[in-house]
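Page header: ASSEMBLY MODEL / two components / 719 residues total.
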Amino acid sequence: MDLVKLIGAIIAIAFFLAYIIITNVPANINTYVNQPKQIANQINYIIPKNFSISSFNIDLQNLTQLANEYKQISGKLSIEVPSFYHNLMGNFKINMPKIPKRITGKLFVNLSSINIRGVYLNIYNDFNQSIIIENITGKYLILSSEQYFTPMEERMIFINITNFTGFYELYSKGEENVTFHINVDGINFTSYMILSKSSNISLSVPNYQGGTVSVNITNTFPYCIIIDNITGKYLYLEKNITIGSNATSTAVFYVSNFTGFYNLYNQSKEIVNISVEVDGIKISKEELLGKNFNISLPNTLGGVVNIKVYNPFNFTIMLYKAYGEYFQLESAYALKPGYSYLPFNVTNFYLLYNNIKDKAENITILVGIGNINITKTFPLYSSINLTYYESGEVSITVSNPLDTTLIIYNITGKYLYLLNKTEIKPFSYGILRIYVTNFTGIPNDKITLLANVYGENISESFEVSNSLSISINQVDVPVHNPFNETIIIYNVTGKYLYLTKIYTIPPGCTQLLEIKIINESEVFNENITIKAQIGQTNITYVMGL
Amino acid sequence: MIKYPFTLIYLISSLIIIVLPFYWWTYNFGGLVVIETSPFQMSIYFLGTFLKISYVISAALEAFRIFLIIVISRDIYLFLKGKIIRNRILLMLTISYLVYPIIIYIVITYLTSSHGIYSNYSFLEIGKELVSVKYENANLLLTFTFYPQIIYWIALAISFLFIPSYLETRKLKK
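Prediction written out in full:
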């Protein structure tokens, strides 16, 4: 080793050490070691991991099912509108009987004689007015006809015995209860006595406070009317009555306090709530009951109408909504096959009547058949045909099992289109509102879908096949080339998918690979082969999805 | 005029070759790994990306270049002074490059067998070879290309001047 070589070696080593110190090699040693690993790791980011190609599925099965059902069945959903009354003017005449402030008096009843056919009673009317004995009832006893007694009248009446043995047994024990049904000036009351051998009983009616009153009501409306209820401070209608047009019927009221009622009635101050029904139209209002009692039903009135709806199908369908300008279905109803009566709220009968007369009132209904809702608007005076040529709005539930928002811009076919853009959040459901112009065409319709998934717009055409299910059969997979070498993807093949063309991805670029899927449901179960080139290296890579 | 023209040409050419900053050989493993190398500098590319470790390796090789420049300059100086010089450096460097593919072969054979990688790679000295590699569910078809640059051929040619140089100096010794 000569000196020059030594100096040369020292200079060389000094150079190398200087480099190491200046560029701080020890601190960067990890960079040098890890750089190849980092590059190798980028292989994992070429194909996005979270990209799920098979889960996006729009099922129009119900739509086609409905279309097929329509082929087989057809029917008219009819809504039978009652003849709405444009003018409900009219009145009730209520002929209140002369109601006394109090009724006092006695009815003296003596048992005169008994034979096998009947009982003879001697009756004396101590009331200062005429009375009618409407009935006398007891076990085994029947009064054959009403008995009229003038004031102070005394006479014998005969009561039939239906079963003498039975009667006599009760009579002997002193257990034969007899009820007297008495009417005094239209006021009904009842009284009791026990028949016995020594029967010499006076039946008194002292200070009778209240009771039932039979009242004649005349209906001057040109329509048959049902009075459901009349309730005031001192009286109420015992049960509803039906009165024909310009006819009179007897209504039975219960008056709780004759004195109180009499005072109010004479001053026409008895306020009553009246519920009447005019051919299905229910009306409630307050009126004053007095000597000149009139009820008029004004033009601006609304009310509830029970309307007959006919479901022509042999299965239950839902009627979610039915409404027009002046009426509305109260709530959703399940319509059983055949006729149903559904209550509708009418805001104004008069205007509704005019609209129907002018054929200007439309009804909009939302019918649910299975999972499909059909919205239809049609004139109220007609029926809606639910037949094979039917069109309507259909709501279809679509699930989004992806971890990204699915935006469906449009679904168009010859016979259908999407009504509005629909966004479905990750892992949730959305409703697609589709308008179908002709259900018959659906099973063979070609449909184009415009959607956005993973931020990429996709457009796909497919056919509504007999399988009744539609799935996306093309996905655009974003593939990134992280390397400084061009990647050429020659083919992605599987039994159920293939790449549409050869893709050249320049260094650092991302390209969308258009992959056609032949069978969406099977695609998960297969291995796919990717043929690609990086640099001068051809890679054949087999992977499971 | 000059006593040993071959030796002079050989020494000066050697110096020039050593000073010139060109790569001698390129080893391309299917474009996945590309190594450009000379005894005095080296670049390694992995999937098209330049590996920074190349700088450190090159720094060491550059130091070696500096050392050789000093040594050969000294030899030229002594030669011009009339001393007989027999410098084998360039010859050794160029010949050694023919050995590298053997080292590569040993390394690749070791790596593939230790990682369970199937490969049909057989020894390649120079030129092209299509190598098929099978690893798990991936099949790779790589083109190995090992070829020298023109500078290497020139260097090799120059290094053979050592033989006449040796002969002319030996004649003198007699």
